[in-house]
Amino acid sequence: QKEVEQDPGPLSVPEGAIVSLNCTYSNSAFQYFMWYRQYSRKGPELLMYTYSSGNKEDGRFTAQVDKSSKYISLFIRDSQPSDSATYLCAMGRGAQKLVFGQGTRLTINP
Amino acid sequence: KAGVTQTPRYLIKTRGQQVTLSCSPISGHRSVSWYQQTPGQGLQFLFEYFSETQRNKGNFPGRFSGRQFSNSRSEMNVSTLELGDSALYLCASSDGQGDEKLFFGSGTQLSVL
User: Fold this and answer.
1) Residues B79, B85, B89, B93: is their CA dihedral positive or negative?
2) Contact B33, B48 (CB under 8 A)
3) pLDDT confidence of A11, banded at 50, 70, 90?
4) Which residues of chain B have a CB within 8 Å of the CB of A98?
5) Chain A interface includes B50 (CB < 8 A)
6) Which residues in chain B touch residue A41, judged by CB atoms under 8 angstroms apart?
7) Is residue A42 very low, low, confident or very high in pLDDT (cuts 50, 70, 90)?
8) Are B91 and B74 in contact (CB under 8 A)?
9) What residues of A are in the B interface, CB distance below 8 Å?
């Protein structure tokens, strides 16, 4: 079993829809939770960062962490075609060694 | 502030050769990490350097090695290349103080023929 599980998709939704992306994990030592966005032929870009449990909102993006269920989510409101990318969840425990999910390929259709 | 710079962007090598990839971190960042990204395995951690010392290492064979210079720039070397080494190699920098925020370069796409 992988430490971090993420549905690779692909996921295709119409413009303006709410998108929900999720990851589950098995290592209860993880304290840092991140979402990265990766466009084709580019490196991952840090999108959201959360320490421990709770919610964080940044514009159209909301990240949620539920440590009791070992489950994290990223919500995208009013999705735009420019949001089309691969979204990777990542987790760490302060050891400078992030563990990444497989990534979910998302397409927003105009 | 300039981002993480990786060179070259693309490389084509043949089996048995060796290759060196270069990474310049964000100014002021002392930690450099390397990851391998493939469609099948996703992003996998190779190693991390902080102040010229390897601080963490992933589960890759000894053919994969790296180093960091006093100016924080880093190089990664792969010897005796295998077909399975074809991948996007990503370098990421951070301030190394433990918050785990990594900032990635655009990567070097290595193809082994």
Assistant:
1) negative
2) yes
3) very high
4) 33, 45, 100, 102
5) yes
6) 106
7) very high
8) yes
9) 32, 34, 36, 41-46, 49, 51, 88, 90, 92, 94-103
Residue B66 sits at the chain A interface (C-beta within 8 Å): no
Inform me whether the pLDDT recorded for A76 exceeds 90: yes
Which secondary structure element, helix H or strand E, spans residue A29, and what is its range? Answer: none
Share of chain B above pLDDT 70, in %: 99
Q: Which of B4, B100, B107 is the closest to A98 by Cβ?
A: B100
Residue B44: strand pairing partners: B36
Using CA atoms, how far apart are residues A12 and A99, in angstroms rounded to an integer? Answer: 26
The answer on pLDDT for A64 being more than 90 is yes
Q: What string of DSSP letters covers chain B?
A: ----EEE-SEEEE-TT--EEEEEEPPTT--EEEEEEEETTTEEEEEEEEETTEEEEE-S--TTEEEEE-TTS-EEEEE-S--GGG-EEEEEEEE--SSS---EE---EEEEE-
Provide the residue type at A41 as one letter: R
Q: What is the mean pLDDT of chain B?
A: 95
How far apart are the C-alpha atoms of A23 and A74, rounded to whole Å? 9
> What is the per-residue pLDDT across B18-63, written as a single tens digit (0 to 9) for each?
999 999 999 999 999 999 999 988 999 999 999 999 999 999 999 9
